[in-house]
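From the methods appendix. Each design record in this collection lists the tokenized structure first, followed by the designed amino acid sequence. Records were kept in a plain field format so they could be parsed without special tools. The example shown here is representative of the layout used throughout.

RECORD:
FOLD TOKENS (472 positions):
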């Protein structure tokens, strides 16, 4: 298939109207019907990858001709794909040389790579910087999912009237300056649908906080969209009375949103907070429902939570990592791609009635701290649980839990304005130590650091859980 002319040899037509009808149907059908739809898409993707991508052709060489069973395929990693970037693609014009040059040029954010692909770069917190090209139909699928499954939450959240009375102004607060997915999509929508986008304004997280607060006060947004760590800071500003906005809805994405943080943001802004599980590999992997459960858009993306041996993780248990298969993107196919996230598949139906599977993202695999217990065995500490313990404590503005050795954890903390540091730190330490004891870890493993939480150089984001091994 040549994406160039806009026509595709694929039997599926990817016009937006058709996609919307298809997504509506998929949201109503029985599990057997969804499975058939998914299998047909998977079959086409595998076939395409085998015939057009030298990388997949070689990896699948020993497999029988007709493979439809996902589990019989070997997983791929970010490093493996980046090292074989040219051979990975199904389009011979896609090369690491041109892709790397494209994402290195900030003036081309929002432009099309090779005039036909959207390319996202990741800042490489896991050590491997990556470029992920997406074709036109993948972008259409992401847009259709957003329109059909995310936008109606405005109405269901009871936010439509305040939304319109605030003149439908949307504030997107993101890290700017790189070809990160959020920046690229923002710039794309702005250039392709200027009228649709007329009421959105983008604010950079690199702006000093007092200036950002002033700008938001002047703009009075009806919807605020950002990362949870940034929303936490803004919720603190709102609670302190410096930020004075009345959004009808807050949208959180790109990072893990813990339940206490969601509650704190909702009570500061007095409006619903909705969560999206998204990645540079697939824009809207899962959207939350009104019962707070994230539902995977399983008609277009397959998630396999697996244990350390690559076997399926049991429902209800946090996985070691998660394999992602993107059924929409044919240019640089992701088939059983190791996403590096720990995810728990939630068993049982959701009260909202959605047939789409429920998940709980626990955090990045490399954020899972592993502490040695007194008996010498290591215990994993899940980011979402640690985040919940810390964030339930009043007065926390920013924090980092750093693993400094096999039995050593350090807490860096910055208290919220109006709070006294010592009692906030003491309370967080007390709660974390109680949690450690419950996990069979010596509570003395945790100490308070006098340092404040520090941001990454890449993208300005701050990791809340990290390993810095420089001691015993
Ligand atoms: Zn639900």
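DESIGN:
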């Amino acid at each position: 298939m040549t994406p160039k002319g806009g026509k595709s040899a694929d039997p599926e037509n990817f016009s937006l109207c058709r996609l919307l009808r298809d997504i509506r149907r998929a949201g109503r059908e029985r599990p057997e019907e969804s499975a058939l739809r998914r299998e047909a898409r998977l079959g086409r993707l595998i076939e395409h990858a085998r015939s057009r991508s030298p990388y997949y052709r070689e990896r699948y060489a020993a497999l029988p001709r007709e493979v439809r069973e996902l589990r019989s395929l070997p997983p791929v990693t970010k490093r493996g794909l980046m090292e074989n970037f040219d051979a990975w693609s199904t389009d011979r014009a896609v090369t690491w040389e041109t892709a790397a040059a494209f994402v290195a040029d900030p003036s081309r954010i929002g432009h099309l790579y090779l005039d036909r692909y959207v390319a996202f770069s990741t800042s490489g917190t896991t050590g491997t910087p990556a470029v992920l090209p997406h074709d036109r139909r993948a972008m259409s699928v992401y847009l259709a999912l957003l329109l059909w499954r995310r936008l109606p939450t405005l109405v269901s959240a009871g936010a439509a009237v305040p939304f319109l009375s605030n003149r439908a102004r949307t504030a997107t607060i993101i890290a700017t300056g790189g070809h990160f997915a959020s920046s690229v999509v923002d710039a794309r929508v702005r250039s392709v649908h200027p009228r649709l986008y007329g009421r959105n304004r983008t604010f950079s997280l690199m702006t000093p906080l007092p200036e950002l607060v002033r700008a938001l006060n002047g703009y009075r947004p009806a919807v605020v969209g950002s990362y949870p760590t940034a929303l936490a800071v803004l919720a603190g500003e709102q609670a302190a009375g410096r930020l004075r906005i009345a959004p009808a809805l807050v949208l959180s994405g790109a990072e893990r949103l813990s339940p206490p943080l969601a509650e704190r943001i909702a009570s500061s802004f007095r409006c619903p907070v909705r969560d999206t599980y998204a990645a540079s590999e697939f824009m809207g992997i899962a959207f939350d429902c009104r019962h707070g459960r994230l539902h995977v858009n399983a008609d277009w993306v397959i998630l396999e939570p697996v244990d350390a041996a690559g076997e399926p993780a049991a429902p209800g248990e946090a996985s070691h990592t998660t394999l992602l298969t993107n059924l929409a993107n044919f240019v640089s196919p992701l088939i059983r791609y190791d996403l590096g996230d720990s995810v728990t598949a939630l068993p049982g139906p959701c009260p909202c009635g959605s047939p789409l599977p429920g998940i709980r993202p626990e955090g990045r695999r490399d954020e899972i701290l592993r502490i040695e217990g007194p008996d010498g065995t290591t215990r994993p500490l899940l980011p979402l649980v640690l985040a919940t313990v810390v964030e339930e404590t009043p007065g926390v503005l920013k924090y980092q839990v750093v693993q400094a050795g096999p039995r050593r954890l350090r807490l860096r903390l910055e208290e919220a304005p109006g709070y006294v540091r010592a009692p906030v730190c003491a309370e967080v330490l007390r709660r974390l130590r109680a949690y450690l004891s419950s996990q069979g870890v010596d509570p003395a493993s945790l100490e308070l650091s006098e340092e404040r939480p520090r941001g990454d150089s890449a993208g300005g984001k701050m990791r809340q859980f990290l390993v810095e091994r420089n001691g015993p």
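APPENDIX NOTE: Residues 368-467 form a domain with the GMP Synthetase; Chain A, domain 3 fold (CATH 3.30.300).
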